Amino acid sequence: MTVVQTAWRVGKDAVEAGTNLLPGSIPRPIARIGVTFAAVSIALFLVKSIVSTAFFVLAMMGLIYLGFLALNPKEVTGSTRADESEGSPLEDPVEEARRIMEKYK
């Protein structure tokens, strides 16, 4: 709750500072509304740009990964069904090492 109160205070101070930059011929309530509208518009534009960039990067990463999987199907690990369908079920690494050592004795 303290963070929200601090952000509200900072926002009010920023709007007040922006209002003071405008000429005195503009009524203060209208100047305050205009500065608030401009600040909210800029903030929403920045948030939209960051979110859009993040989604674009995530989509490109997914597309590149799918392309990698399509071009390198044998490098996909963790798929026991693919190994069983080829006729060579996954063996215990210790047993496989013993078998190799027996072969070279």
UniProtKB/TrEMBL annotation:
The keyword Transmembrane helix applies. The chain crosses the membrane at residues 30-47, 53-71. Residues 78-105 are annotated as: Disordered. Residues 95-105 have a biased composition (Basic and acidic residues). Keywords: Membrane, Transmembrane, Transmembrane helix. PANTHER family: EXPRESSED PROTEIN. This is Uncharacterized protein. The lineage of its organism: Eukaryota, Viridiplantae, Streptophyta, Embryophyta, Tracheophyta.
